[in-house]
Amino acid sequence: MYQALYRKWRPKTFSDVIGQSQITETLRRQVAEGRTSHAYLFTGTRGTGKTTCAKILARAVNCEHPADGDPCNRCDACRGLESGSFLDVLELDAASNNGVDQVRALRDEAVYSPAHVKKRVYIIDEVHMLSTPAFNALLKILEEPPEHLMFILATTELHKVPATILSRCQRFSFKRITPADVARRLAFVAEQEGIDLKADGAEILSRLADGALRDGLSLLDQCAAAGGTIDSGAVLEVLGLAGNLQTAQLMERILARDAKAALLLLNRLYGNGKDVGAVLGELSVLTRDLLLRRTAPEGGNVLLSGGYDSATLDGLGRDVPTNRFLYLASTLQKAAADLYYSTNRRTDAELCLLRLCDESLSGDLTALDARICRLEEAAARGEVIRAAVEKSSAPQKGTAGVERPALAPEDAPPWDEPLLPEEPPLPEEPGARVFDLPEEPSAADEAPGTGRPSVPPAEPSAAAPAPVVDGSWWRALAESCKGRLPPMYRAFLDMCGGVLEGDQVTVYAPDDITLGRLDNDRVRGALAEEAEKAAGMAVRLVFRVGEPPKASPQENLKNLLKFGSQFDNITIK
Asked: Which of 104, 117, 127 shows the shortest CA–CA distance to 39?
């Protein structure tokens, strides 16, 4: 019967354990000197050797002929414990035996002496899964066990183990096995098994193992089942991974904001059998390397994954701000977590790529923050004002009747606030009300001797109507446009003002950044259409930086009268 490689090549002695020399040397010395404890707690990530060391320790304390703390694996006790015929060493899974009744039964059986060996050993794996009553039931016998009893607890989540249990155990922390040690062990096993494993294939398998030798052996077993030579290409093909080259190409398209090319490459990878979750995972690893390369260029090399050379990282990270990498990393992490519950992984992966290429599709404040950061960086380089001027001088396509005229020197924006018109003189007749404004004199009423020239009436078409500077007009126009624009544009519209003068609508922005955000085809089209509806004629749009002109005293007075006419009990004096 075929046996999995990680089971077949499980270490038999402390000397065979890979990457945990600080623990194995201590345990071997304790066994050799007869100073073993009654309770041990092994903690660490998966596949680092916790259960293996627990089984070796159980055989070593019961071995009839130990060799420098290692079990001989030849005596009756070692062979019986290895085959499982001796029941004095019991291995329990706390994930399925986590109740208080199971622990009480274990406690009642533990008082009996072993039948074949010197010590009765209980190996409790995933001990953090025990319930609180089960921990309480275990506490007493763990504190004062019989002379023949030993407990070996193993867990991957140390923080879930009560402090009362921790204080009664000798704790050993198993570290992640380095990729170099994993690669050497895989090469040794492949040589013994007759597997044609190349150095580049062993390197990729060691990185994919993520510090767990058991995972590395399982991946090697999977690749060996496919047959043939196991190199980097074979590993990527069997495991459904994109590979470093294709991942770097995908990242290059994302940084260039080329969503079409990124989606086509993802589709090609998906068609070749690549898992979209693995592709996003590789993008996340590459993003981490790029971020570390940017934030810690001197000491960050030791933290890199090692899957990409310096030339590739430098080429991808050139001229890309750090906040962009932070956005990519957070988006990829969230997408990877959401894929676990997704019903259509491919669609979710494609949506993730679109968000990576264009931050404006995120739909939250991250998009606005990213755009503001880009504008600030461009403004620092002097590009915002130059781009705004160039765009204003070019005719806008696709917007009827909204052609932005080029600003001549004589038509320069009113940077200074315009002067208010003079107030009309108050009537001298007694008892006259303030708001009874005198009518404009006609040309026939002008006497020849008054010194005032007689001005012929102008053509109606040539007469320019008075500018509409009422703030309520612009607010109404802005509110009508908000329903047609994304939320980010609404905040910018609230910061602006507007004036209708003839057939020209002038929009006053407080600064160049606000002007740059509103001066686009989408906003111009919405403002033009709504302004045409309100004015009843075709209008032109002009964007300027500054404060809108204030309403004249006559206009304020008319607004006040209009307000007072709505009430019978208000008299304006």
From this structure: 127
Residue 214, Cβ neighbours under 10 Å: how many?
Answer: 20
In sequence order, which residues have a C-beta less than 8 Å from that of residue 117 and are 6 or more positions away?
62, 77, 80, 81, 86, 88, 89
Q: In what order do the strands lie in the sheet with 504-509?
A: 497-501, 504-509, 540-545
pLDDT at 409: 46
Instruction: Identify whether the C-beta of residue 540 lies closer than 8 Å to the C-beta of residue 527.
Output: no
pLDDT the model gives residue 187: 93
Pairing outcome for strands 170-174 and 39-44:
parallel
Give the pLDDT of residue 507: 86
Query: Which residues in 361-436 belong to E strands, given as ranges?
Result: none
Q: What is the pLDDT of residue 23?
A: 93
Counting as low any pLDDT under 50, the low residues of the chain are 397-423, 426, 428-466
424, 549, 521, 492 alpha-carbon torsion, rounded to 10°: -130
Q: How far apart are CA 356 and CA 358, in angstroms?
A: 6
The yes or no reply on domain 179-239 and CATH 3.40.630.30 is no
pTM for the structure as a whole: 0.58
Nearest C-alpha neighbor of 29 from the set 70, 65, 64: 70
Strand partners, 498: 507
Query: Can you point out the beta strands (E) in 146-249?
Result: 149-155, 170-174
Residue 534, pLDDT score: 79
Residue/partner pairs of 51-55 with CB below 8 Å, 24 or more apart: 51/91, 51/123, 51/125, 51/154, 52/10, 52/11, 52/17, 53/14, 53/17, 53/20, 53/23, 53/24, 53/27, 53/172, 53/174, 54/123, 54/152, 54/154, 55/81, 55/89, 55/91, 55/123
pLDDT of the residue at 407: 46
Q: Are strands 504-509 and 497-501 parallel, antiparallel or unpaired?
A: antiparallel
In this structure, the number of other CB atoms found within 10 A of the CB of residue 205 comes to 28
Phi, psi of 41 (to 5 degrees): -130, 115
Of 184, 190, 186, 155, the residue nearest 171 (C-alpha): 155
190 vs 221: CA distance, rounded Å: 9
Assigned superfamily of 5-174:
P-loop containing nucleotide triphosphate hydrolases (3.40.50.300)
For residue 331, give the nearest of 301, 268, 287, 293 by alpha carbon. Answer: 287
CATH of domain 244-362: 1.20.272.10
Residues 6 or more apart whose Cβ sits within 8 Å of residue 178: 19, 211
Tell me, what's the pLDDT at 465?
A: 46
